[in-house]
Structures are given as C-alpha cells and as structure tokens.
Amino acid sequence: MLAMTALAACAETRYVAYEDDEAIASLFSRSVAFKVAGAYYRDPPDCAVVMPFLADGRRPANAAIIENALARHLSAKMSRVVAAAERRRLARTLAVDLSRVQGRAALARAAGCGFLVEAVPWGGEGAYALVWTQARIGLEVRMIMARDDRVVWRARHAATRSEGGLPLSPFSAVTNTLTAARFNADGDVAFSMADDAVRRIFETLPALRPAAPRRGRVIKPLKPSTIGG
Q: What is the domain partition of the chain in residue ranges?
C-alpha cells in the first residue's frame, strides 16, 4: 500500500519555487522548479531565438532533438520563434560568436527578436543495471534579454522513464533483462522524453501571446505574485 502511494505521488508533476530543495533531481521525484522575473511582464517577449544546446561547451548527440522540442513548445507561447535552422543561417551570415554577449545580441537584432532561450543538461544521467534501466533527460532552460543577458524566466526539470524490475524468480530475471535491454536500445524514447521534459518546463512560462477569446469568457493576465515572482 505504501509502495502504491509512493508511486502515485511520483506520477504527479509538482511545480515549485526555483530555490526550493524539492527541485533537486532524484530517482523518484517529478518536480519542475521555476522563477519568473518582474521584467518578463514589464517587457513581454513576443519573439525569441532558440540558442544551441550545449553540454560542457560541446554539442551532444541529442542536441537537435532538444532544440526542436524547445522551438515547437515555445511557439505556443509567443508570436514568433527563431528555430535552429534559421539561427544557424543568421549566425553564418553574420559570422558571430554565439558564446559572447555581443555575438548573441547581434544575432537577436538580425532576427528581430529581443529574447534568447538557452538550455543546458541538468539532473544527471540515467542508469542501467541489467534487469532494470532508467532513461533520464534533465534540462535547465532560461530566457534572457538579448541586449544585456538579463534572465527573465528560468525553469528546470528531469523527465524519467524506467523498465525492468527486481529478479524475483529465474523467469522474471530473464524477462526483466530483455525488457530493460529493449527499452535501453529504443531510439524513440529520447524523442518522447525530450518532448515531455520541455512541455512540462514551458508550462511555467506565462503565455502572453494573444488568444482568440471564447464567447462569455474573460481572459485575465497572470500576475507575478501568483507564480513566485
């Protein structure tokens, strides 16, 4: 009964303050930590450039998956998003160094956007123990003003999935080993997990994009105090 209660708790996504200790990634937590600055509302973003996804200064194998997921979910929040292909074209044309503030600002001006969205890995990696495996994609995402690198929103989350289990019998040991190995080799898992992680992260980004109001419904803007400042 206790195990079922624990599993049910793990299935719920909790949204917590960025500084909250509950946001620390663990095997069994599913929390999204976030913070929205008041500047986000004073100068609402309507366009953002998705920056390169890097890990320790290098482009990891799943970079394209992450960047595409960022652009796809961000497009539901604002009027225009400059995705990876357009960003690369502009960077080549301008011959700018995107690791420098001046280069990023020049790219944003050329794109006609005032904001950049950056993501880095966060929360550790998955685990593989022959009869049990866990896949993990953890991200820390932030939106910054291109002109001064000021952070106006940030969030972090680690999406996890696991297969296999305890070898309670010779049969279950074989079954769990095969299940874990098949899951570990499934290339589609990375796509769906990246989408899960980014979707949950962008749930914390206030949507200021104008939407068509429904008849009889008044849409009120969110206030900074309602989402942790």
A: 29-122+137-158+190-205
**CA neighbours closer than 13 Å in the CB half-sphere of residue 198:** 26
Helices (H), 56-169: 63-74, 84-94, 101-111
Mean pLDDT of each 10-residue bin along the chain, 229 residues long: 38 80 54 93 93 88 92 93 95 92 92 95 61 72 93 91 57 50 54 88 82 40 40
Q: Does domain 29-122+137-158+190-205 have CATH number 3.40.50?
A: yes
**The pTM is what?**
0.73
